[in-house]
Amino acid sequence: MADEELVDPKKYLEDSCKPKCARPLHTYQACVRRIKGDVSGHKHCTGQYFDYFSCVDNCVAPKLFPKLK
């Protein structure tokens, strides 16, 4: 048992949840394309980034917590 490498199930659960969050991902990617040429550094896509990962986290959480000890 001590020689077994522990595997983080969150990574695999995130991979399975990402397709369910396609709309926030496309919104984030559109924002990134829109501000690509900004040299001032004032424009950002932080809100869209957090929307996407909030969607992923909300999908992962109910599946992850029962697996934790």
Mean pLDDT: 91
Largest sheet composition: none
Strand tally: 0
End-to-end Cα distance: 16 Å
Could you state the order of secondary-structure elements as H and E?
A: HHH
Radius of gyration: 16 Å
Name the shape in a single word. Answer: elongated
Uncertain segments of ≥5 residues (pLDDT<50)? Answer: none
- Sheet-strand content, in percent, reads under 5%
Q: List the total number of helices.
A: 3
Estimated helix fraction: 55-70%
> What class would the helix/strand composition place it in?
mainly alpha
Structural commentary:
- The chain is built from three helices and no strands.
- Helix 1 packs across helix 3 and helix 2 runs antiparallel to helix 3.
- It starts with 8 loop residues before the first helix and ends in a 5-residue tail after the last helix.
What is this structure's SSE topology?
Layout: H1 9-17, H2 22-34, H3 46-64
Helix pairs in contact: 1-3, 2-3
Give the structure's gist in a few sentences.
With 69 residues, this protein is mainly α. It has 3 helices and no strands. The protein is elongated.
List keywords for this structure.
69 residues, Ubol_cytC_Rdtase_hinge_dom_sf, elongated, 0% strand, single chain, mainly alpha, 3 helices, disulfide bond
